[in-house]
Design brief:
By secondary structure, this protein is α/β, with parallel strands linked by helices. It has one domain: NAD(P)-binding Rossmann-like Domain (Rossmann fold). The protein has 9 helices and 12 strands.
Length: 275
């Protein structure tokens, strides 16, 4: 199969490309990081149309998004909203025009209506359902990242430990998350693409580790690789999810199960990219 990955230079795209090639699939990349011509905000993009004609399935991973600092600073701005609306409108138009199978990367935050990001992902889900694509709800997928402006919490902590010898937690560290290693996420996407027509569209497909960990737990796992590092917490509370905790739907476990523990995933990133 030929897989078109929109957002191929992102952290999920990085892992998905590697896993698709391991499974013997062909990969077609598309990301503004590689060339400004691959800007999904551009209406009726000729390159997007050409690549979509040539593929068998599309992975819609692209979004203007980053870690908690990026979200707090930008998610309520005009540009953040406009960028993501343009991306979705153009991509879904192209998907409809070319009638391609596709998987839309949503978020477990799509039911959090106080979050602009969550609302935008909920809109993407409605688009996807109207075109009979597959919606997946990602839960804090992590992996290697190269864009420092958009680092998520795990990369933030590793960078601090490596370069500053201090991990500064922006909150009190008590908020809980479910984290999923990028390789596990990619295996799930490949499984769904290979079984595209048999996947029940009425099911909630939550792609997660199904294990809760606090932000402090993450810092302590990073510290295991940098024992000289100290951990400092603030008194702030979580302002992104506001301590709301969804419970993941278990439907995906009929098709796929995660394999990598949070400790193993973090240690692998450090060993492969920071040693």
């Amino acid at each position: 199969m030929k897989h078109l990955i929109l957002g191929s230079a992102g952290q999920i795209g990085y892992h998905l490309i590697k896993k698709l090639k391991e499974h013997g699939h062909e990969v077609i990349t598309f990301d503004i990081v590689d060339t400004t011509y691959e800007d999904l905000r551009l209406h009726d993009n000729d390159i997007l149309n050409d690549k979509m004609r040539d593929c068998d399935i599309v992975h819609f991973l692209a979004f203007d998004i980053g870690g908690s600092f990026y979200m707090k600073k930008y998610q309520n701005t005009f540009n953040f909203i406009s960028n993501n609306i343009k991306i979705m409108n153009n991509v879904f138009d192209a998907l409809k025009r070319h009638n391609k199978p596709f998987i839309f990367a949503s978020s477990q935050m799509s039911n959090m209506q106080y979050s602009t990001y969550g609302i935008l992902k909920a809109i993407g889900e409605k688009y996807t359902q109207s075109l009979h694509g597959i919606v997946v709800k990602f839960w804090n997928v992590y992996g290697y990242e190269s864009d420092s402006k958009k680092f998520h919490v795990i990369t933030d902590f590793i960078e601090m430990a490596k370069h500053d010898k201090v991990i500064h937690i922006k909150t009190d560290g008590t908020e809980s998350r479910q984290f999923l290693y990028g390789d596990d996420c990619s295996e799930c996407l490949i499984m769904l693409s290979e079984n595209y027509h048999s996947v029940d569209r009425t099911e909630q497909l939550h792609i997660t580790s199904f294990e809760w960990s606090t932000i402090l737990d993450v810092a302590e796992i990073v510290k295991e690789k940098f024992p000289e590092v100290c951990i400092l917490r603030s008194k702030n509370k979580d302002e992104i999810q506001k301590d709301k905790k969804n419970e993941p739907d278990l439907s995906i476990l009929k098709y796929w199960t995660p394999k990598t523990s949070l400790r193993a995933g973090i240690h692998k990133i450090i060993d492969e990219h920071y040693k």
